[in-house]
Amino acid sequence: MKKYLEVLSDLEQKMNHGQFVSGQKLPSVRNAAKHYGCSVSTITRAYAELENNHSVYSIAQSGYYVVEKQRNRPNVSESNRIDFASTSPDPSVFPYLDFKHSLDKALDTYKFDLFTCGDSKGMETLRHTLISHLAGEQVFAKVDWITITSGANRALEILAKMPFPNGNSVILVEQPSYDLYLRFLEAEGIPVCGISRSTAGIDLRELEEKFIHGGIKFFYTMPRYHNPLGTSYSADDRRIIARLASKYNVYIVEDDYMADLGEERGMDPIYSYNATSHVVYLKSFSKIIFPGLRLGVAVLPEKVIETFYEYQRYADTSQLSQAALEVYIQNGMYERHKRKISKQYAARIIVLNEAVKKHNAAGLLQISEVQSGVFIQFKMPQKVNLERLVERLAAMNIFVVSGKQFYLSGYMEREKFIRISISRAQPEQIEAGVRMIIEEVGREVKSPF
């Protein structure tokens, strides 16, 4: 890591932990250089970065001072709420000031251009920026293959409705899978069928049979940090899925919506293993920055690009949001925030795993082995009444999501589980929440009804 980044990180930690409080003057540039054992120019750069982030402000001939932070009013009802249901990022880690800086810089840079409708493919400068950004995920793409959409859901809707070059019509989905997309496919009357996926993975022989005989247009999959299971396919499974797609001319729609939340080795996407352009790669930025940003990226095979734009019809994303995201990525703020939120979520999952080990001695729950991401599956004994369990937990101010909604309406081979999300669950609440869930499951098992 560059020295100025080490200094910057240390100063930010001290401000976050109250060692430097609102209005306090930072050490002079020379004193700070002596303290950190670096040059004056390194400190100047770190202080300038803090000022750009609105963490400090400077007064000529005086020095740098810590910006006064807004104090959130305590909310009694919120503090008692244990939220294992929400999927959006924790508001306490939203990068408001960083993104405000990016918005200001975008306005200064692009001015009036930001208030036009723009290209339906997205801003060309952002798409060029995304070439190197995606390459970091082993997704190597040309600028013409990249399109910006108003969130990954918009791309999923277009892909579901448009024809594909293989001439097939059925969409294959994992079961369980992303509930909103399943409801969309059913509401639109789009041909869809399911294939079972568990925390252990997927039956690749069954997948091959469906590719051969199922008339599959594309296979929709979340290979990393699956919603609702939380698990990821092994590298071998991803490699085999890529090979089967090429062999049987079936497309893969790879929803890599949480690509930024883990750094495990061997976690390259299916896209990186496919040499025949049979993978549509999707990524969302809302899970890292703000849910309301509504920006996603699709990397399209050349054979489907023209049809995709025919069905998209018009630009549906804000030019200002795109320009701000471009600045946010280019100046390194995205990478820094990604690491921050990824570490925070990983720490919460560690707390949750330890709580399960402590309170699940009777083995009432089976949980997915997850070390990063957001979701974990709590698999229940068959005797448990899920609806009643969810209601009883809600009455105790513990909010979870029943696994039933993550299946197609007619799909019968269902596991009984609740989905746990740690994105809004505060670390100090997690153990108590897990303990009360296990206690309620125990009561359900003993119930005569």
From TrEMBL:
It comes from the Bacteria. Its cofactor is pyridoxal 5'-phosphate. Keywords: Aminotransferase, DNA-binding, Pyridoxal phosphate, Transcription, Transcription regulation, Transferase. Residues 1-69 form the HTH gntR-type domain. Coiled coil: none annotated. Pfam families: Aminotran_1_2, GntR. InterPro entries: Aminotransferase_I/II_large, HTH_trans_reg/aminotransferase, PyrdxlP-dep_Trfase, PyrdxlP-dep_Trfase_major, Tscrpt_reg_HTH_GntR, WH-like_DNA-bd_sf, WH_DNA-bd_sf. The keyword Transcription regulation applies. SUPFAM superfamilies: PLP-dependent transferases, Winged helix' DNA-binding domain. GO terms for molecular function: DNA binding; DNA-binding transcription factor activity; pyridoxal phosphate binding; transaminase activity. PANTHER family: HTH-TYPE TRANSCRIPTIONAL REGULATORY PROTEIN GABR (PTHR46577:SF1). In the C-terminal section; belongs to the class-I pyridoxal-phosphate-dependent aminotransferase family. This is GntR family transcriptional regulator.
